[in-house]
């Protein structure tokens, strides 16, 4: 019975997973599922999945199997007349299912055809791995080595003259049992840093910041699947840049102008002090509406990118979020100046619907 239940649960799980995957593009643009995020799971609302089941009539009326009956006798008592106005809209039947972040990352990879990342710098972080090294006469039953146990029992029965080739039954006793032995081996594990930068000047409104919040959630989900050791830093900037926590990153709004180089200078300082480039896989994601304070500061940004940030990065992604108040000039300048730079990926994000393609543009290179 338990195996049948497990089989049914697995089948139901596959149905749910298929439903989530089918509508993944829709979920990418929805923010409520992020608000219900747990440590390892998110809750996703999906259409109700109906499972057939028997139930008793609460009125305990007659029906099939309740005596002979007469011709023309209706089965059951019929429905009670309803009250009130009839509606024209269908009812909503939604259920919430918990989906692990790992499953979500795998679905995202399948849907967007994202390649696995080839990390660099596997030096200083160590991960414990169990390595089986030998055979012992004692140990837990879960580590019993059946081949060695069988051989030991066979030798004992042959030596004792109890082995019959015509009826080769081997019955191990306690002394025959052999178990695997193991030791812990330290292995290097790649580590990664994500730096999110966002323009929080007056031209970046709530809608623009919500787009950044949604896109960064899916970027996080994918990179956490690729790296066991992941550090995240958040930087906001208008005319001045600040290193902040996650909540402040998504809720702060300023009214000043925009000097993009202030963010790039702060990132440069942080990388040089805390994150050696030969040991870390570094990803930069900068979101802005494209306004910047003059050509001189844009040239300052280019200099920092060329000398420090691009050489240090696995990937530098600039997402320009469309705003009715932004000029959108910065992405044009980047395209002109860095035509041949493969580490720099540019994306124009017009609205929430554009998040889907933007993620693919950013992460589709597999760096």
Give short descriptive properties of this protein.
elongated, 367 residues, Rossmann fold, alpha/beta, 6-stranded mixed β-sheet, 21% strand
Short description:
With 367 residues, the protein is of the alpha/beta class.
The name of the CATH topology of the largest domain is Rossmann fold
Contiguous uncertain segments of 5+ residues? 123-127
- Amount of helix: 25-40%
The CATH class of the largest domain, by name, is: Alpha Beta
CATH-scheme architecture of the largest domain: 3-Layer(aba) Sandwich
Q: CATH superfamily assignment of the largest domain?
A: von Willebrand factor, type A domain
How many separate domains? 3
Spatial sequence of strands, sheet with the most strands: 7-6-5-8-9-10
Which oligomerization state do the chains in this entry correspond to? single chain
């Amino acid at each position: 019975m338990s195996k049948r239940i497990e089989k049914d649960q697995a089948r139901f799980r596959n149905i749910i997973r298929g439903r989530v995957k089918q509508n993944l593009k829709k979920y990418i643009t929805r923010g409520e599922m992020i608000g219900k995020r747990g440590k390892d799971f998110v809750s996703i609302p999906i259409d109700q999945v109906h499972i057939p089941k028997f139930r008793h009539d609460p009125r305990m009326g007659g029906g099939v199997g309740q005596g002979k009956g007469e011709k023309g006798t209706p089965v059951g008592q019929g429905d009670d007349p309803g009250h009130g106005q009839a509606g024209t809209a269908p009812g909503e039947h939604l259920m919430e299912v918990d989906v692990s972040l790992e499953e979500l990352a795998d679905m995202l990879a399948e849907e967007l055809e994202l390649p696995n990342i080839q990390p660099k710098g596997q030096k200083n972080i160590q991960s414990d791995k169990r390595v089986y090294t030998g055979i012992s006469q004692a140990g837990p039953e879960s580590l019993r080595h059946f081949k060695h146990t069988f051989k030991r029992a066979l030798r004992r029965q042959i030596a004792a003259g109890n082995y019959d080739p015509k009826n080769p039954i081997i019955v191990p006793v306690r002394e025959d049992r052999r178990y695997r032995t193991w030791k812990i081996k330290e292995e290097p594990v790649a580590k990664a840093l994500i730096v999110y930068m966002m323009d929080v000047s007056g031209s970046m409104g709530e809608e623009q910041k919500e787009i950044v919040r949604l896109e960064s959630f899916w970027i996080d989900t994918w990179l956490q699947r690729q790296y066991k050791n992941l550090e995240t830093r958040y930087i906001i900037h208008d005319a001045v840049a600040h290193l902040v926590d996650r909540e402040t990153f998504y809720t702060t709004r300023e009214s000043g102008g925009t000097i993009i180089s202030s963010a790039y200078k702060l990132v440069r300082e942080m990388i040089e002090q805390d994150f050696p480039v030969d040991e870390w896989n570094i990803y930069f994601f900068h979101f802005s509406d494209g306004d910047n304070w003059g050509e001189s500061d844009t040239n300052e940004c280019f200099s920092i990118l060329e000398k420090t940030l691009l050489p240090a990065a696995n990937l530098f992604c600039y997402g320009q979020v469309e705003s009715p108040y932004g000029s959108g000039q910065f992405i044009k300048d980047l395209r002109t100046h860095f035509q041949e730079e493969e580490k720099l990926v540019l994306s124009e994000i017009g609205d929430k619907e554009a998040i889907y393609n933007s993620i693919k543009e950013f992460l589709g290179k597999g760096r």
